Structure prediction request, 239 residues.
Amino acid sequence: MSSAPLFSDRADAGNQLAQVLLPLVNQEQEARGVKLEPIVYALPRGGVPVAAAVADKLGCPLDIVVSKKITMPRNPELAIGAVTSDGHALWARPRRLDRKQSKLHQAALQEAQAKAQAQLAQLSAALPKIRPEGALALLIDDGIATGMTMAAATKSLLARTPAKVWICSPVAPLALSNWISGWGDRTVILEQPKLFSSVSRFYASFPQVATEEAFLVLQEANKKQQLLGNRQEGTGSKD
Prediction:
């Protein structure tokens, strides 16, 4: 694999992803014979600029699913699981735990969920008032490394009964391909390299996305769709 970055930045990755997703969404709608409304869901914060480009291209609302890694205090870089703001948890290695280990894992889960809930609260004012029931939910991140947060987010979305959930990302490890595809109805991943050290490796520019920036991107994306919905009957977000 070339050492050259695959994407200049998150916006570029989102535009490339949108070009692939648009005809696939159109094909899905034609195959069903009905207009299956797409809703784009981002994993904040890094997934928001990528997802915003896709939502703009598809002309649909942009929402979020907040999923956080569950880590232990002694090794905060090691993910032992992931949990969403609404409590859908996934563990990396389900196993028997003694009482002390169980308490530690439960405490780590509660801490991660509290962080997810806090982030959702910070971004909630910029989110559309929509429900995914019967819609085509496109779940997007800026890259998939371990797949834990994406899998937990997928569990959360599936519980809300969309018609389908597609897992979408600019890049993910080839080794995770089969595992990832087992979570949603379809996976759309632009690049799946064999050698994968980190998501940032595949971007020329990959700064951290601040909460304030994610809020503004969400707000601007949904304001634009709201304006389009006011002008065009049958488009825009639904209550």
About this structure: Strands lie at 38-42, 62-64, 67-72, 75-84, 89-91, 136-140, 164-171, 186-191. The longest helix spans residues 99-123.
